[in-house]
Amino acid sequence: MADALIDAALAARAHAFAPYSKFQVGAAIEDSDGRIHTGCNVENATYGLTLCAERVAIFKAISEGVRKFRRVAVAADTDVLTPPCGACRQILWEFCGDVDIILVNPRGKTETYRLKELFPKPFDASYL
Ligand code: THU
Questions:
Q1: Which residue in 12, 69, 85, 105 could disulfide with 26, CB within 3.0 to 4.6 Å?
Q2: What is the pLDDT of residue 10?
Q3: Are 111 and 103 spatial neighbours (Cβ–Cβ below 8 Å)?
Q4: Best of 21, 25, 88, 119 to mutate for ligand 1, by most ligand atoms within 8 A of CB?
Q5: Residue of 10, 23, 103 to test ligand 1 pocket, by largest number of atoms within 8 Å of CB
Q6: Domain boundaries, the chain
């Protein structure tokens, strides 16, 4: 089924700066107005400063004033579809809550999870 969010995640992947891992990831996040915000992973020679595609996408949107999100898509070229890392699950929870996370590869395989399934006991502001 055609889905602009999936297409955007796959397209964002082409911009990945991943000379060290060679593992290219794209992410796309749909906001409550239906706009799509994209990101790719951006690596660094110090390795530890690498930012994942998901965090680049959400921080881009947040920095433009967007605060409500509906869905997230993550694209990588793996047959077992690539999920967001733990750090990205925490950040996505902060801004998106229990949204659909759509995993996709370039061969059209997709799987959809609720963020709560991937991140069942999140720490958030409710504890503070
Ligand atoms: N990476 C992401 O961008 N998102 C994920 O969901 C998994 C991992 C990146 C980080 C690093 O640049 C490369 O993939 C290998 O870990």
A1: 12
A2: 98
A3: yes
A4: 25
A5: 23
A6: 4-119
Segments in the chain below pLDDT 70:
1
- What element of type H or E holds 26? strand 25-31
Q: What confidence score (pLDDT) does residue 2 get?
A: 79
Confidence (pLDDT) at 106: 98
Q: Residue 54 catalytic? A: yes
Q: What's 4-119's CATH class? A: alpha beta
Residue 83: the pLDDT is: 98
